[in-house]
From TrEMBL:
Family matches, as InterPro entries: NAD(P)-bd_dom (IPR016040), NAD(P)-bd_dom_sf (IPR036291), UDP_G4E (IPR005886)
Keyword Isomerase included in the entry's annotation: yes
Similarity comment: family membership: Belongs to the NAD(P)-dependent epimerase/dehydratase family.
Full protein name: UDP-glucose 4-epimerase
Domain of life: Bacteria
Length: 346
């Protein structure tokens, strides 16, 4: 039996492919490479020693996905593929609903056609919206603040209804908090196309000299130092959480939502200082206005993950910054070699 990883060349999918293979699973990847490069698959193969059947395909291509599921005798889909920029989703909502929601519908139809009823889905803490209480438990009210967040919640709902319609479905909806860091080898990591939206890749690009300074977006929040607080989670821990989710859906049928975070909040200035320590020199920053739509602080309640997955995050902020920095440096080195293809998710 194999696991089909959609978006397996992307940031989180590639790290999860490594973790799955290291845990003895066979992995098949489909990716349309809209935000990544086939070179990532070669790197995952080199890291693991495995040969990965990888298809250039869109999740919306139902016939192709059905055929791949059948040809590889897949029993599970880990669904990472999709668009993820919150700001873009506000500007182009139809793209987000088509790519994420319609894409997922087509994928789930392919799964039904191939009689594959195990699914692990990449959801996001963004489904909670503004905190009514903290930490966010899985039963916190759901009120996304962007089309991206709504697309995640709509897919969660589709999966919930599928589980009601047919008790054979086994579904884990994983709500990620703020993934960062990279594989300790420095071979795979996040490489956003254009100006990074997220804090950690932005800090890394300033540290390496690609950008002049970090704009700290607001220092007048009701937090310890006035800057925004988030629950940053190392992507390697996140990847392990997916392996643990396989055991959950092996044990139980139905729909399960689980937060994947560390349970601890760090401010923008905390992360900047931690990155400076990893790099060994100061990183330029300027205090700017708040980013519209941002909330002051949120972090995960991790009790469900501990109880249901037997999983907890192990890697702290120091490792997140060290590994992110190692990756950022190797990326610069590889970009200096013109023959080396570099894509968005490499
Ligand atoms: P990513 O962009 O690096 O990876 C997504 C991959 O899917 C890319 O390789 C891309 O080429 C591929 N893809 C996109 N649309 C596709 C389609 N229609 N068909 C086939 N392949 C397609 O993003 P990521 O950070 O690895 O995120 C993975 C998932 O996790 C996404 O669903 C994202 O919404 C979710 N998520 C990410 C974060 C985060 O901060 N990175 C947080 C919460 C949830
Ligand atoms: C973190 C903190 C910013 C950039 C987003 C999505 C969420 C999830 C993870 C996908 C905030 C501050 C940021 C910068 C800054 N993704 N910041 N300067 O907004 O918590 O979450 O990514 O599902 O859905 O919304 O993450 O990294 O953008 O911001 O000061 O240049 O860093 O204000 O306090 P966010 P982020």
């Amino acid at each position: 039996m194999s696991i089909l990883v959609t978006g397996g060349a992307g940031y989180i999918g590639s790290h999860t492919a490594v973790a799955l293979i290291e845990s003895g699973h066979d992995v098949v990847v489909i990716d349309n490479y809209s935000n990544s490069s086939p070179d990532v698959i070669a790197r995952v193969e080199a890291l693991t020693g495995a040969t990965i059947p990888a298809y250039t395909a869109d999740i919306a291509d139902r016939q192709t996905v059905t055929r791949i599921l059948k040809d590889h005798d897949c029993d599970t889909v880990m669904h990472f593929a999709g668009l993820k920029a919150v700001g873009d989703s506000v500007a182009q909502p139809l793209d987000y609903y088509r790519e994420n929601v319609a894409g997922a519908l087509s994928l789930f139809e392919a799964m039904q056609a191939a009689q594959v009823r195990r699914c692990v889905f990449s959801s996001s803490a963004t489904v909670y919206g503004a905190p009514q209480f903290l930490p966010f438990t899985e039963d916190h009210p759901l009120a996304p603040a962007s089309p991206y967040g709504w697309s995640k919640l709509m897919i969660e709902q589709i999966l919930r209804d599928l589980a009601i319609s047919d008790p054979d479905w086994r579904i884990a909806v994983l709500r990620y908090f703020n993934p960062c860091g990279a594989h300790p080898s420095g071979q795979i990591g996040e490489n956003p196309i254009g100006r990074p939206n997220n804090l950690m890749p932005f800090i890394a690009q300033v540290a390496v000299g690609r950008r002049p300074h970090l704009d700290v977006m607001g220092d007048d929040y009701d937090t310890s130092d006035g800057t925004g607080v988030r629950d940053y989670i190392h992507v390697v821990d996140l990847a392990r959480g997916h392996v643990a989710a396989l055991d959950l859906i092996e044990r139980e049928t139905g729909w399960n939502a689980v937060n994947l975070g560390t349970g601890a909040g760090y401010s923008v200035m905390d992360m900047l200082r931690a990155f400076e320590k990893a790099v060994g020199h100061p990183i330029a920053h300027k205090i700017g206005p708040r980013r519209p739509g941002d909330v002051a602080a949120y972090w995960a309640d991790t009790q469900t993950a501990e109880a249901r997955l037997g999983w907890r995050a192990e890697l702290g902020v120091e490792r997140m910054c060290e590994d992110h920095w190692r990756w950022q440096q190797s990326l610069i080195a590889s970009q200096a070699e013109p023959s080396h293809p570099v894509g968005g998710g490499l």
